[in-house]
Specification:
three-stranded antiparallel sheet; about 100 residues; about 40% helix; alpha+beta; Wheat Germ Agglutinin (Isolectin 2), domain 1
């Protein structure tokens, strides 16, 4: 009887030890999230300044050179700075109501 109890106790202890060891190690998902949260490496471009226009996500941005544009994931569309669109003039606002007549 003592041998049976000792065997059961050993199995319980082994299961508890396995649970403790398995739960102390970080999961693969946690490692992946930590890796994704790391900021990207800074761009080191030794090319001299030569403004280019790059397109990223449907918008155009001016970059110092093609190296920086490619590092940012933009596609170079012009070897010149992007042309700024002219600002729209604000329309003169009309009064909502006519002023009341004095009597």
């Amino acid at each position: 009887m003592k041998l049976k109890q000792l065997g059961t106790l050993a199995m319980i202890a082994a299961g508890a030890l396995t649970l403790v060891v398995a739960s102390s190690a970080p999961s693969l998902a946690a490692k992946k999230k930590k890796a994704e949260a790391a900021p990207p490496a800074p761009a080191i471009c030794l090319v001299p300044y030569s403004a280019v226009c790059g397109e990223k996500g449907g918008m155009k941005y001016t970059y110092a050179n093609s190296c920086y544009a490619e590092h940012d994931g933009a596609k170079v569309v012009s070897n010149k700075a992007c042309v700024a669109k002219p600002a729209k003039k604000a329309a003169a606002k009309k009064p909502a109501m006519k002023p009341a007549k004095k009597t």
